[in-house]
Amino acid sequence: MAKRPKLRRQLTLAVPAPALVLGFSALFLSCPALANQPAPKISASLDRHWTSNALDSEFAVADWYTLLRGSLRQDIGDDEANAGIAAEFQLTRHDRIAIEDDRSIAVSAHAFGRLSPTLELRGTLTWSAFSKGDHLEIGPLVIGTRALKQIAAAQVQMGVALDEVTALVLDLSNVFETTGRTRFEEDVIGPTRLDPDVNKFRLAARVMRTIGPLAAGGSLSALFASVEKLGSPPVSLSYALYGAQGELEMRSEAGLSVGMASGAEALRGAQGIYSEIRPAWNVKAAMPLPKDFELRGAWFGRYETGDSDDPLASWLHRAEVELGWKATGRLALSTGVYREVKQNLLMENEERGRGFYAQATYALSKPLSAVVRVDMSKTFKTILDIRERTTDVFIGLRAQI
Asked: Does CATH number 3.30.420 belong to domain 19-400?
């Protein structure tokens, strides 16, 4: 039997201040024009969860945890020129398995301007930090770990009206991710870097032509990820990802909306370790039904580079369906299922997952609502022969001001 993880043991890490974004925010908040603008938008939620698998692994340990989230957003200006700032945080605290506690904070600033009837510009700066608790399994032992990850991002978008019904959007962004040394519970192992620094540079162009309820067009994109070499063999690899697709969107007067995108993605790993072109697609639809029901669905296939246990990437194929019902003016019910297959490209492992959820939301008053939700999921990792089963139940309070 595996050793029980040590309870309520925390590793603390200092979070440095993001000088660029916070400085922009301070200047923005001191603007006299702010007094004539609407009040900031504030939202908060407090959820109490029970999970059957706090470690998210085949070593299932049940636990209760509390999740606190909050956000603030302030905008000034009008449709011709505006700017804004936003901030959000999230805290997770487990009753017993403290090694899985997480903390995160994010701040951002954006500005928009319509320079002419045919030209628009938008810029965004973002900084976020995550103190993530995790664990390392060594035989029958489970050792808690903690690492601080920071992400700084900048994005510029330009919109050009080519004619009365055709628009071109150019997108340029750069994201830098850095992760500090991983610290181990009880200092059983000295602080060690387990995650490399990553810089992601992306270019994209999208053109859409809208005629009545129908919009059609296409897009091109290129993503270049430069990954620090760490470990031997390296824990992660640099890559280039190219995409091209045609798009079609339709919305009827009855409320039916359908969006389709189909094309191809080409992924090339560092030093030619992997190179392949695969078809990529994304289909989504929403349809209102009688008696205040609504049916939504999505189906897509694409390369997954952000959430993959593989050193390079995975191929993700997922389908999901959701049914919602506005039962009364205060009560809303929804339920959904999903199924996905994630193929790790270099590890040759396949993760097969499926899940179900049911949720009820009741408006207690104008800003406050109560939520009850059940999530159930199963994942099978073929080569590793790992089966993960998780049930998560929570009741929460959410407020928007």
From this structure: no
